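ASSEMBLY PREDICTION REQUEST
Request ID: AP-0331
Submitted by: J.K., bench scientist
Number of chains: two
Total residues: 228
Priority: normal
Notes: Please return the full assembly, not individual chains.
Input sequences:
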Amino acid sequence: DTAVSQTPKYLVTQMGNDKSIKCEQNLGHDTMYWYKQDSKKFLKIMFSYNNKELIINETVPNRFSPKSPDKAHLNLHINSLELGDSAVYFCASSQDQVGPGANVLTFGAGSRLTVL
Amino acid sequence: KNQVEQSPQSLIILEGKNCTLQCNYTVSPFSNLRWYKQDTGRGPVSLTIMTFSENTKSNGRYTATLDADTKQSSLHITASQLSDSASYICVVTEANDYKLSFGAGTTVTVRA
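STATUS: Completed
Returned structure:
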């Protein structure tokens, strides 16, 4: 069973469109994250959710909105897509929000978004 | 300025050879340092974790070292295999709020 699964794996779309990426974890973890990995392979945190509450919101455009229907799911919605949004987006989860278990991240396989 | 710097950015080695990757950090106060391996098209997977009191830790052919005084870590790959081709990412945890700082990664290519 896949611990952290995200869909779709690939997404190609036009500028201005709205798209969503879904993420589910079956590890029973309390915290879920979205990371963006740019062309230089640098991972940058976008959001994290702990028990359905947003606890980190780095300086990302408000076109990006995380939505968590329950502890096991954290979806990423992107409105009015721009060329610069092209990247690989990784979902991750961890047992804790803070403490030693906070940095034991389990990542999904990534979703490659290409905006044309 | 990024608090975690990795070098080299990329390297190519022949199968069976050894290599060493470097990670320098300025994160303070320090909690722990973790090395992740990211295969192409996959998410990062944890290899090792080093706490303040640990100098070296091995995971099969991977050996990580930590010098908390100089704030440096290395990841040594012994007898490389084709499957070692991947990006290796250094992640440092801050002790106060457990915030993670990521390095940009080192891309290793192992050739037959």
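REVIEWER COMMENTS: Chain A touches chain B at residues 4, 40-45, 90, 92, 98-100, 102-105, 107-110 (CB under 8 Å).
SIGN-OFF: pending second reviewer
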